[in-house]
């Protein structure tokens, strides 16, 4: 068909030929203009989708900072970020990763040399076949079959080594991120205080994509570069350097052309990842809040369906538009880099032969040999140069993955640092209310005005007891919760915190644990390992029943699979002591289960059965199991944040009795008055700083087990400076004046203990 059209075109008169040529040219220009218009329309629609997504995220400063200032380009900043990440992936020249890169480099060199040798054999086979030298042809054919064995091994080895490099980089980078993300409670700051969006996706998918992209880039950059250098030298023997320079000039022009018409591949890749993360987050939000949604369904379920479908439409629409832009780009790449490059290569090879004298062209066998070898080398050279031209695509994709991974590293580093951004923002947010609004002298209603001493700067120290001195506490939005809070929890003198929701009880625990920054005052805590925290929602690990009680020690299966370096790091961080022999350990754990009335779990599941314990256990069973965990570890102090709210009243009394019997002193949050009998004092939070001046007051109780507490005697007493029992009188009483070892400032609060 093509031949018939060619004959028909040749038979046309010159005027008709010119008319057809003009029509084809005009059609090409029109199509190009329409394609350009389509590209611009597509990019505008993509920008509109991005703007819609940004608007749906809200107007928080974190959102604007994280997503509003994204700039992805192949520039010095990209190179600095890439070098930093590579320094993590390849920590030293003697590392395993460096060895893998060296081995792959040797394989790439071997493959290029084998390709050059195979092209010689192919040319020799063609020459001997045309000249009918069949003995030499059969020998060369045998050599061809033999050389294919190492060639096949090298090709497979290259793919294997590329995957090994990818996995090694992924392991090294993910392990580094895990160490950063799990230190200094960065994971808590990321999920609670913000500053790190879609951490799960970035640590898993983005790191994996970066490792795949960088390992692929190495193979697709080093090999074509080596091919061009070696094949240029081999081609110089048959066609000289002048024709090759003409071919390289064509490739340089094509490279500039393709770069000029290329869409923003890096930004598209990054935005696709962001949209995918938003879609995943929407599903995760529905899973997390499933009960709240179900209570209002219908129509809440249908509303969530609309939200999920909207995220899906945005993701699919943006991905489809990106595929269209990439498809248009691939048409240009394929034509200029592959097909028209072959035409140029043939033209470069044939031109010297066409203009050479017939006597200088050589015999038919020599021409066949040189043609087969030269075309083989030219094809490989063209492919190598084409790969180098298209490296910009891989580099821009790498720039996108590098940007997201680098942002992850930078944000995690900020969260881990002692002067991390979220802490500074927290302090700045509350300092105005605290130091401006409450820096003037003030007093509680009905009490005399005394000189006001500003609170001490925030300070944390280690000691033998839990001690709070002149604590000022504000919520993250700047609402004042507590002022001038001072008390001490001595061994055996447990303290109960009571008050309405939102008054600062749990906030005080967050400050105590270091989850929130201390704003003013001093906190003294025992060394790590001597304070144990139990929240209202117990955390159950993935593992066996034994692992639930041993937590926060790692599950046995995890410990067995850890490396010696990880063992040393965990022991150094936690001060962990290896458990006793298995029989003795299981006996101790069984006693803990009996103490919390959960021994039936052992009969039902055994020690070594792995379950999803969040689904297997009820809310009360989870809290009992957490108390068994507390009884096993037997810390000096236990901080209990409504940890028995799902347990019956009788069961709650049993659990607290077991804690007292184990010698644990606790700082508790609870709402049931019956728990007062297990405490020496109560700190009442009244959520009314503006009226009381402090937001709290204290109540001294009879000793646990004495006539007024456990046995139902005269009941609790309100502490005051002159009426508190001598055994429970505070060591320091705020309000007694300044300069005499007392904390100063009028308040109804007292130090608890003696």
UniProtKB/TrEMBL annotation:
Molecular function GO terms recorded: ABC-type transporter activity; ATP binding; ATP hydrolysis activity; long-chain fatty acid transmembrane transporter activity
UniProt keyword annotations, A-Z: ATP-binding, Membrane, Nucleotide-binding, Transmembrane, Transmembrane helix, Transport
Similarity-based family: Belongs to the ABC transporter superfamily. ABCD family. Peroxisomal fatty acyl CoA transporter (TC 3.A.1.203) subfamily.
ABC transporter domain location: 466-713
Matches recorded under SMART domains: AAA
A single Gene Ontology CC term: peroxisomal membrane
Alphabetical list of PROSITE patterns matching this protein: ABC_TRANSPORTER_1, ABC_TRANSPORTER_2
GO BP annotations listed: fatty acid beta-oxidation; long-chain fatty acid import into peroxisome; peroxisome organization; very long-chain fatty acid catabolic process
Protein name: ABC transporter domain-containing protein
UniProt-listed InterPro entries: AAA+_ATPase (IPR003593), ABC1_TM_dom (IPR011527), ABC_transporter-like_ATP-bd (IPR003439), ABC_transporter-like_CS (IPR017871), ABC_transporter_sub-D (IPR050835), P-loop_NTPase (IPR027417)
Cross-referenced PANTHER family: ATP-BINDING CASSETTE SUB-FAMILY D MEMBER 1 (PTHR11384:SF67), ATP-BINDING CASSETTE, SUB-FAMILY D MEMBER (PTHR11384)
């Amino acid at each position: 068909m093509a031949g018939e059209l060619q004959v028909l075109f040749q038979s046309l008169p010159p005027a008709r030929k010119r008319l057809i040529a003009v029509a084809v040219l005009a059609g090409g220009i029109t199509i190009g203009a329409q394609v350009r218009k389509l590209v611009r329309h597509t990019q505008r629609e993509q920008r509109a989708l991005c703007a819609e997504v940004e608007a749906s995220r809200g107007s928080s400063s974190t959102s604007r900072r994280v997503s509003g200032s994204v700039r992805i380009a192949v520039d010095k900043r990209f190179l600095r970020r890439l070098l930093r990440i590579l320094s993590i992936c390849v920590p030293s020249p003697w590392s395993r990763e460096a060895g893998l890169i060296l081995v792959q480099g040797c394989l790439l060199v071997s493959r290029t040399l084998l390709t050059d040798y195979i092209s010689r054999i192919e040319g020799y086979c063609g020459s001997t076949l045309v000249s009918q030298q069949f003995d030499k042809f059969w020998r060369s054919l045998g050599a061809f079959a033999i050389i294919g064995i190492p060639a096949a091994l090298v090709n497979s080895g290259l793919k294997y080594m590329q995957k090994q490099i990818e996995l090694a980089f992924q392991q090294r980078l993910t392990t580094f991120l895990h160490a950063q993300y799990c230190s200094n409670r960065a994971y808590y700051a990321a999920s609670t205080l913000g500053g790190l969006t879609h951490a799960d996706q970035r640590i898993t998918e983005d790191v994996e994509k970066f490792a795949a992209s960088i390992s692929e880039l190495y193979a697709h950059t080093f090999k074509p570069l080596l091919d061009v250098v070696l094949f240029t030298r081999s081609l110089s023997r048959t066609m000289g350097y002048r024709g090759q320079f003409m071919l390289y000039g064509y490739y340089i022009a094509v490279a500039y052309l393709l770069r000029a018409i290329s869409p923003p591949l890096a930004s598209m890749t990054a935005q696709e990842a962001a949209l995918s993360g938003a879609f995943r987050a929407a599903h995760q939000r529905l899973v997390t809040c499933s009960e709240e949604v179900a209570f209002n369904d219908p129509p809440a379920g249908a509303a969530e369906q609309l939200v999920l479908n909207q995220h899906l439409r945005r993701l699919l629409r943006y991905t489809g538009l990106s595929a269209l832009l990439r498809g248009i780009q691939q048409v240009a790449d394929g034509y200029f880099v592959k097909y028209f490059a072959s035409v140029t290569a043939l033209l470069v090879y044939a031109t010297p032969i066409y203009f050479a004298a017939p006597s200088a062209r050589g015999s038919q066998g020599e021409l066949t040999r040189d043609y087969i070898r030269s075309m083989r080398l030219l094809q490989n050279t063209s492919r190598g140069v084409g790969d180098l031209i298209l490296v910009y695509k891989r580099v821009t994709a790498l720039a996108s993955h590098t940007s997201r991974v680098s942002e992850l590293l930078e944000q995690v580093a900020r969260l881990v640092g002692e002067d991390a951004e979220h802490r500074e923002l927290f302090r700045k947010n509350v300092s105005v209310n605290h130091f401006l609004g409450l820096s003037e002298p003030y007093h509680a209603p009905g009490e005399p005005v005394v000189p006001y001493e500003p609170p001490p700067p925030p300070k944390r120290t280690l000691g033998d007891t839990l001690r709070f001195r002149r604590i000022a506490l504000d919520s993250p939005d700047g609402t004042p919760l507590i002022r001038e809070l001072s008390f001490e929890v001595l061994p055996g003198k447990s303290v109960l915190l009571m008050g309405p929701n939102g008054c600062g009880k749990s906030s005080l625990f967050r400050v105590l644990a270091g989850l929130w920054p201390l704003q003013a005052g001093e906190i003294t805590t025992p060394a790590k390992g001597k304070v144990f925290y139990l929240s209202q929602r117990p955390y159950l690990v993935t593992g066996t029943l034994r692992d639930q009680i041993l937590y926060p020690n790692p599950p046995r299966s995890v410990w067995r699979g850890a490396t010696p370096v990880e063992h040393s790091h965990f022991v150094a961080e936690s001060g962990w002591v290896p458990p006793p022999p298995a029989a003795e350990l299981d006996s101790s754990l069984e006693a803990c289960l009996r103490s919390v009335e959960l021994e039936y779990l052992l009969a039902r599941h055994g020690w070594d059965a792995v379950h999803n314990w969040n689904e297997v256990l009820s809310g009360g069973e989870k809290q009992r199991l957490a108390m068994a965990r507390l009884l096993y570890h037997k810390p000096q102090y236990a901080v209990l944040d409504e940890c028995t709210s799902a347990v019956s009243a009788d069961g709650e009394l049993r659990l607290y009795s077991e804690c007292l019997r184990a010698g644990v002193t606790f700082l508790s949050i609870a709402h049931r008055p019956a728990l007062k009998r297990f405490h020496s004092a109560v700190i009442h939070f009244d959520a009314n700083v503006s009226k009381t001046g402090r937001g709290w007051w204290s109540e001294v109780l009879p000793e646990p087990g004495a006539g007024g507490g456990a046995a139902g005697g005269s009941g609790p007493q309100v502490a005051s400076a002159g009426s508190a029992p001598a055994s429970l009188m505070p060591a320091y009483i705020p309000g007694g004046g300044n300069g005499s070892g007392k904390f100063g400032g009028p308040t109804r609060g007292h130090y608890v203990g003696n």
